[in-house]
Automatic annotation (TrEMBL):
Keywords (A to Z) from UniProt: Methyltransferase, Transferase
Organism of derivation: Sphingomonas floccifaciens
Domain called DNA methylase N-4/N-6: residue spans: 240-321
InterPro entries in alphabetical order: DNA_methylase_N4/N6, DNA_methylase_N6_adenine_CS, RM_Methyltransferase, SAM-dependent_MTases_sf
Keyword Nucleotidyltransferase: no
Catalytic activity, reaction form: a 2'-deoxyadenosine in DNA + S-adenosyl-L-methionine = an N(6)-methyl-2'-deoxyadenosine in DNA + S-adenosyl-L-homocysteine + H(+)
Name of the featured protein: Methyltransferase
Signal sequence annotation: none
Coiled coil: none
Length: 334
């Protein structure tokens, strides 16, 4: 399709009836952007609501089809490191037979979620992973409006490499959100010699999850960029409290996981905080390149934001389509 470059509000001819304020002009322009963005490409899609669209598409390809300067924020939990979602390993996950996925046994009557074993990645797979994130990062840089933020989930083992790919693509590192969460990752004794080395753990038990915060460079001052694009900063929690970079949040459990059974499902309690912060003026379009079972889309719907997501897995596309109404209406306690 022909590339359509969306210009800042100043490039639009003013109405003859009245000159709109910058906020009115911004809102009208975002309305136009939304009508365009949610119909990009010829891939199968579901319009989950007037504010949410899910497209069954490859993220790199979809980013290439998006017009430049058309997305206001990205919130995503990417596949680490791609290989766990390749067909051979993903099929092993679904059949409960492992592969790169560690399938934990039931414990205390509870069935724990599987976790990908990132420590088994080879040098070749790590190089492939870096190339993959570089392609994603360059696509995000192109699609984001100036000042637009990207929140990108990582893990302590691979965050340095992943975040470097985003910075190399021209996105500014603006810190990290640390999700404090107790997991089963790490802390295990030597495999096959657990009794012999009962006092040894092969790595520290993880109690946190890093989310990189990146921003496309602004044009002009912060105030000018906010007026022109609606981006540049983060939405405050309240007039007296800024958005903070440490968020305690337990793993997804119970009713939420029943609604959207995805192995990497992030809880609405956490996602709604990130999504809300991503649009400083409360207007714009959120994009999730790896939408999975739709947690980002549901979080945006709950807040009243517009959001579009992509995923190439038809099973997760179906899960998200079914889960979206209940997930977005889920009552949470902050």
């Amino acid at each position: 399709m022909a590339t359509r470059i969306i210009q800042p509000p100043a490039a639009r001819a003013p109405s003859r009836q009245r000159v709109p304020t910058w906020r009115q002009a911004l809102t009208e322009r975002i309305d136009d952007q939304w009508d365009l963005v949610r119909e990009v490409g010829a891939d199968r899609r579901e319009h989950l609501s007037s504010n949410a669209t899910y497209v069954l598409a490859d993220a790199v390809q979809f980013l290439a089809e998006l017009p430049p300067n058309s997305i206001h924020a990205v919130v995503t939990d990417p596949p680490y490191g791609v290989i766990e979602y390749e067909q051979k390993d993903h099929q092993k996950l679904r059949s409960g037979r492992g592969g790169v996925w560690r399938i934990p046994p039931s414990f205390d009557g509870a069935k724990r979620s599987p976790l990908p074993r990132f420590t088994v990645l080879s040098e070749e797979e790590l190089t492939k992973l870096h190339s993959f994130f570089s392609a994603i990062a360059y696509g995000i840089h192109r699609a984001l409006v100036p000042g637009g933020h990207a929140f990108v989930a990582a893990n302590p083992l691979l965050s340095t490499m992943t975040f470097h790919a985003f910075q190399s693509a021209g996105l500014e590192k603006r810190g990290e959100v640390i999700r404090l969460v107790t997991t089963l990752r790490g802390g295990d004794r030597p495999k096959g010699a657990e009794k012999e080395f009962s006092d040894v753990s092969m790595m520290a038990r993880s109690g946190w999850e890093p989310w990189g915060i990146f921003r496309k460079p602004m044009i002009g001052t912060a105030a000018a960029n906010l007026k022109a694009w609606g981006t540049g900063g983060l939405r405050r929690i309240s007039a007296d409290e800024p958005f903070r970079d440490v968020i305690p949040c337990s793993p997804t459990r119970g009713r939420e996981r029943e609604i959207a059974p995805h192995p990497s499902l992030k809880p609405q309690r956490f996602m709604r905080q990130l999504v809300r912060a991503a649009l400083p003026l409360g207007v714009g379009i959120i994009y999730d390149p790896f939408a999975g079972s739709g947690s980002t889309l549901a979080a945006a719907e709950a807040i009243g934001y517009r959001a579009i997501g992509t995923d190439r897995d038809v099973e997760y596309f179906g899960i998200a389509t079914r889960a979206f109404p209940a997930l977005s209406r889920l009552a949470i306690v902050q």
